[in-house]
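Give me structure tokens for this 230-residue protein.
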Amino acid sequence: MSKVLIVMSAASTWERTNGSLYPTGYWAEELAAPHEKFVQAGYTVDFASPGGVLQPLDQHSADPEVAGPDCARYVEHAAKALREFGPLLKLGEVDSNDYVAVVLPGGHGPVVDLYQEPELGRLLTAADAAGKLIGAVCHGPAGLLSAVDAEDKWLFAGREMTAFTDEEERIFGTAEGAPWLLASRLRELGAKHFSGPAYEAFTIRDGNLFTGQNPASSAPMAEAMVAALA
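Here you go.
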């Protein structure tokens, strides 16, 4: 049976420019919706993170006023999937050859650790070279920044993608005090960044790269990947 790898952040806090720590974790919908879509399509899904650390749930993703009326289902699905999988794989021990696709969900964690995680960079570089599908949603595209060569050239420069926008960060209340904003950083480093209306589903495919703008884009992105794999 073909396998898909979901790479999670290991971060539980996000240090702000004033030195305060903002609690973070995985965003339930961004983990649960892709997991659900791939499992329904017959794929086995593994979970990995830096050091095999299990990130906590971002509590905002369990709040219906923030994450929408379906959030409880996503919270339950994500918790069950992680519980049944057991200890996460250590990212440094993962071989991209074992997977047909790699998916990076969000929550703010990826802007804390995954953007500069060398083991993720190694994995993504190998996966891209082999034509494996790569998906990243919301803040997950921060993980794409880890894929740089010996001369610090970014692997995904020039590629079309989307990610959580600066506007959405401001609406969410986390733009002020952020060390950097994801969409702006992607553009600065050479990505062709596109966006749709705030908090509405918006996805982009560029070859083997699939990206989603925000939590609502999680399921559509996964569906597009499933269709491409088929």
